[in-house]
Specification:
Elements (H helix, E strand, L loop, with lengths): L14 E5 L12 E8 L2 E6 L3 E5 H4 L9 E4 L3 E10 L8 E4 L2 E3 L3 H9 L8 E11 L2 H7 L3 E5 L2 H6 L2 H11 L18
Parallel strand pairs: 5-9
Antiparallel strand pairs: 1-2, 1-10, 2-3, 3-9, 4-5, 6-8, 6-9, 7-8
């Protein structure tokens, strides 16, 4: 049986938004979004399960080589690359969940990568972000376009992105978790 949004967590910094399987917005098809800001003015989050083919050192000038791809974080500000990570000692980073941080000192990050102190399973680079104004997200949750759950470091930074959506739903005990094994477009099967 489908869980109602009202029985789940409310949106907050550090929560995950899980797109319902038939979300009417194609941008968010089978998306997992990590909320990084949430207040009365609106919500900002990053889609964390949509990798591109581009490596971060190919996307940024003078960036040290690391085996990390750039993820598509959302349709807003695609000309900017953000990062979420588990590097507690990165100065200027903002804690958004237990063991998960956003941003931080870019120069220090580059030095840490060059020194081999940062590994790909500790950081995720994202082009763009997703955003909702005012109460827009709450309205979408009430319309059952999204489910909300807590974030954890493994799901965000380590889990294979192609199965993340289904794994998170399954961990929530959600019946739709089984859809992860179904093609997004059964007509192409």
């Amino acid at each position: 049986m489908k869980k109602k949004a009202s029985t789940l967590l409310k949106p907050r910094v550090g929560a995950l938004l899980i797109s319902e399987p038939f979300n009417p917005e194609p941008t968010f098809k089978r998306s997992v979004v990590l909320i990084s800001q949430h207040n009365a003015k609106g919500t900002i989050g990053f889609i964390v399960n949509k990798p591109t083919q581009l490596k971060v050192h190919e996307a940024l000038d003078d960036f040290p080589e690391i085996d990390a791809v750039v993820y598509w974080g959302g349709a807003i500000r695609l000309d900017s690359i953000y990062y979420i990570h588990s590097i507690e000692k990165l100065k200027g980073s903002h804690k958004i969940a237990e063991g998960i941080y956003w941003g931080g000192d870019y120069s220090q990050l580059k030095v840490m990568i060059e020194a081999g102190e940062v590994h790909a399973d500790q950081i995720k680079f994202l082009a763009g972000y997703s955003g909702w104004h005012g109460k827009q997200l709450e309205k979408e949750i009430n319309a059952d376009n999204w489910w909300v759950t807590g974030a954890d470091r493994y799901s965000i930074l380590v889990e294979e992105p192609t199965i993340m959506w289904g794994k998170v739903l399954t961990s929530m005990g959600h019946v739709y978790g089984i859809l992860n094994d179904f093609p997004e477009d059964p007509g192409l099967n």
